[in-house]
């Protein structure tokens, strides 16, 4: 097990860079988790946007051609659309697993069985992958970069099939142990897991996509809840060349005492740092606008603007299609988001635009 920690023997400058990045990310995590606790409809919209970006970027990294708009349309009509192309099948599988991770990350264990189950679900719609879906590889494979013009470039060789099970067992055991005892910061542990997973490349196909899904899973399990609202996959797509170079920097010394993952850990942490900045900017725009409103809440706001000051009973009479309970809840939300102001208590409360 010490072989993993040997790869984390960083020089002083790298250590300082890692400390600074982790400090910023953890500070943002603390602030964001407070935002997460509030009832906030805008987060639902952010997550929808991030989900489309994540699916699009992760599948395009592997050579798919669908745009984000095409993916959005496909997901909206998936129940009536036949998944005839491989690109469509990959999008549907990625969406399924991403939703499982978002909804059930606290219940998913990092184990051989769960990793294989997620792989099986990822390739659920891919007819071509029937034979090896959910099973470790039995043929040698390589990490290959796919480029928009259709060309491919071999990045590095991976673990031979007969060694996959033992290397994956060691990696999973080490990761679970470190996340429990917390001797190494969880972000560094997650970076190590992803590097090793890609180096082993345990499945015949789908390893790149699964590695990014596992990144989301491990970050959520370590309480980095903001990852749901901004796309890690999009960062990788935009920095694909640097992404592969960082992996290759450690891989060139694979299975030797010289193997170090300095470049990969810095790339990984810097990507998350950039995500926090991106999310903070998006959220600032939201706060400037004064909160997200759904169509029903926009109706309420328009009514108040035209008739202010108003009482709850005025809304009940004007919007008989909406229950009083829903109206009360919407008014509470809009007041909390400082869209409206109120004076008085109970039935005598008067509402106006803030």
Output the CATH topology of the largest domain. Fic-like fold
Text of the CATH class of the largest domain:
Mainly Alpha
Helical content (DSSP H or I, runs of 4+): 55-70%
From the N-terminal CA to the C-terminal CA, the straight-line distance is 59 Å
C-alpha Rg, in Å?
24 Å
Shape label: elongated
CATH architecture annotation of the largest domain: Orthogonal Bundle
Question: Helix- and strand-based class?
Answer: mainly alpha
Q: What oligomeric state do these chains adopt?
A: single chain
List segments where confidence is low: pLDDT < 50 over at least 5 consecutive residues: none
CATH H-level homologous superfamily name of the largest domain: Fido-like domain
Q: How many domains, in number, for the residues?
A: 2
How many beta strands in the DSSP annotation? 4
Strand order of the largest sheet: 1-2
Strand portion, in percent? 5-15%
Mean pLDDT: 90
Task: Walk me through this protein's architecture.
The structure is a single chain. The chain is mainly alpha-helical. It folds into two domains: 2-288, Orthogonal Bundle (Fic-like fold), CATH 1.10.3290.10; 295-353, Winged helix-like DNA-binding domain superfamily/Winged helix DNA-binding domain (Arc Repressor Mutant, subunit A, Orthogonal Bundle), CATH 1.10.10. Helix content is 63%, strand content 5%. It has helices at residues 2-6, 12-37, 41-61, 68-76, 86-104, 112-122, 161-181, 186-200, 207-221, 232-238, 240-251, 262-289, 295-307, 312-318, 324-336; strands at residues 142-146, 152-157, 340-343, 350-353. The protein has a two-stranded antiparallel sheet with strand order 1-2. The chain has a two-stranded antiparallel ribbon with strand order 3-4. Helix 3 packs parallel to helix 10 and helix 11 (240-251) packs antiparallel against helix 12 (262-289). The longest helix is centred in the C-terminal third of the chain and has 28 residues, at 262-289.
């Amino acid at each position: 097990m010490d072989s993993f920690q040997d790869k984390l023997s960083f020089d002083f400058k790298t250590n300082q860079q890692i400390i600074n990045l982790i400090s910023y990310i953890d500070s943002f995590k603390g602030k964001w988790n407070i935002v997460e606790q509030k009832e906030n409809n805008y987060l639902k919209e952010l997550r929808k946007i991030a989900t489309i970006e994540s699916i699009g970027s992760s599948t395009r990294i592997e050579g798919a051609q669908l745009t984000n708009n095409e993916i959005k349309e496909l997901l909206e009509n998936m129940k009536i659309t036949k998944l005839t192309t491989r690109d469509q099948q990959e999008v549907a599988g990625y969406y399924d697993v991403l939703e499982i991770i978002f909804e059930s990350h606290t219940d998913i264990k990092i184990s051989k069985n769960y990793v294989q189950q997620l792989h099986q679900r990822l390739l659920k719609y891919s007819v071509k992958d029937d034979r090896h879906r959910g099973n470790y590889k039995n043929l040698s494979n390589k990490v290959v970069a796919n480029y928009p013009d259709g060309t491919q470039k071999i990045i590095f060789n991976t673990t031979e099939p007969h060694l996959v099970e033992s290397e994956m067992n060691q990696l999973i055991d080490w990761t679970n142990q470190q996340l429990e005892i917390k001797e190494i910061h969880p972000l560094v542990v997650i970076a190590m897991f992803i590097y090793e997973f890609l180096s082993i490349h345990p499945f015949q196909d789908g390893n790149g996509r699964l590695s990014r899904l596992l990144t989301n899973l491990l970050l959520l399990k370590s309480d980095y809840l903001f990852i749901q609202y901004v796309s890690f996959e999009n960062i990788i797509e935009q920095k694909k060349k640097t992404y592969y170079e960082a992996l290759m920097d450690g891989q060139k010394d694979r299975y030797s005492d010289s193997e170090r993952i300095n470049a990969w850990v810095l790339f990984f942490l810097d990507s998350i740092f950039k995500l926090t900045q991106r999310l903070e900017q998006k959220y600032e725009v939201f706060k400037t606008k004064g909160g997200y409103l759904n169509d029903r809440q926009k109706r309420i706001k328009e009514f108040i603007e035209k008739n202010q000051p108003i009482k709850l009973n005025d809304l009940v009479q004007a919007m008989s299609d909406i229950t009083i309970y829903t109206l009360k809840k919407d008014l509470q939300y809009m007041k909390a988001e400082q869209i409206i102001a109120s004076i008085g208590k109970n039935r005598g409360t008067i509402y106006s635009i803030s």
